[in-house]
Amino acid sequence: MKALRVAMIGICAALYAVIGRLTDLGITVGGVAFWPAAVIPAVFSVLFGPWVGGAGAAIGIFIRDMLFHGDALLSLSAGVTANFTGFLILGYIARTNLNWKRIGTGATIGGATIITGLLLPTVLLPAETQAYTGLSSINSTILFIATVIVSILIITAVARFWPEWRNYGVASVTGLGIGSAIIAIVVWAYSQVFFSPQGYFKAPIPISLIPIIFTWTFATEIPFILLLGPPIIKACRRAFPSITRKG
Questions:
Q1: SS3 state at 125
Q2: Entry pTM
Q3: Quick one: CA torsion of 216, 222, 225, 228, rounded to 10 degrees?
Q4: Domain that holds residue 223
Q5: Domain total of the chain
Q6: Is the dihedral of CA 204, 205, 206, 210 positive or negative?
Q7: What share of the chain is helix, strand, coil (3-state, %, to 5)?
Q8: CB count, 10 Å around CB of 90?
Q9: Which is nearest to 215 in space by CA: 158, 120, 132, 141?
Q10: How many of the other CB atoms lie within 10 Å of CB of 69?
Q11: Cα gap 173→106, rounded to integer Å
Q12: β-bridge mates for residue 29, sequence order
């Protein structure tokens, strides 16, 4: 089993790096790329366990970053950390029998804390937000809150209409949400220290951009994870019944 997991980590990493680089379209916001390939480690986390998905995503994003911008320290501090944590959590929750009352309480408290923390820079620095993003602080706040509300609705819809995938829905939103928050905060912090005319960041990113980076990262990845993940997982289980977990 250990040999299988090591092999799956390698396959996950290779697919994540190559497909990710081929599908990012060269589009970035705040240094973060458009990333439909996020569905790959999500699938591996569910099928082979959270450590497989987390490690595969961490290695794969590092390889991709070296092909894209070549800044190893940026990749290790932001991309590797966020991907490993996010997909580890996704795999763990997706493979756990959830207590929905505890989930509701925890999500309410944790979500309110995270939302408040991420929104404060945008609300308190409206001029800076407008200058960098072209959006007023009000519009940026609305965009962020709308993303959170849509996430809650997605979880509710999945739990209602596809009950067999409700754990996966909660896991996807939670794991990606935490990973997106790590990326947004770390990328901002990194740009404050490591910027130069020759570097990846030509100037420090304003703190008010943190919610925008979070929203961009989350909103451009969650549709692919939720829409493509279940049919891929189903197809893999039908083709290889041995990888289906009992219960």
A1: coil
A2: 0.81
A3: -100
A4: 2-243
A5: 1
A6: negative
A7: 80, 0, 15
A8: 31
A9: 141
A10: 17
A11: 14
A12: 32
Question: What's the rounded Cα separation, in Å, for the pair 35 and 44?
Answer: 17
Q: Is 98 left (phi over 0), alpha (psi -120 to 50) or beta?
A: beta
For residue 15 the two structure tokens come to 């697919």
CA 168 → CA 84, 179, 212, 240, distances in Å? Answer: 17, 16, 25, 20
SS3 per-residue string spanning 183-202: HHHHHHHHHHHCCCCCCCCC
Please write the tens of the pLDDT for every residue from 19-55.
998 998 877 777 788 889 999 999 999 999 999 999 9
95: which DSSP letter?
A: T
At 133, list the tokens.
């993003």
Cβ atoms of residues 134 and 144 within 8 Å = no
Q: In Å, how far are 41, 55, 139, 160, 186 from 82, measured between CA atoms?
A: 13, 11, 27, 30, 9
Return the number of other C-beta atoms located less than 10 Å from residue 116's C-beta.
Answer: 10
Q: What is the pLDDT of residues 71-91, one digit of tens each?
A: 899 999 999 999 999 999 999
Report the distance separating Cα 102 and Cα 60, nearest Å: 33
Q: Using CA of residue 116, residue 189, residue 31, residue 74, what is the dihedral sign?
A: negative
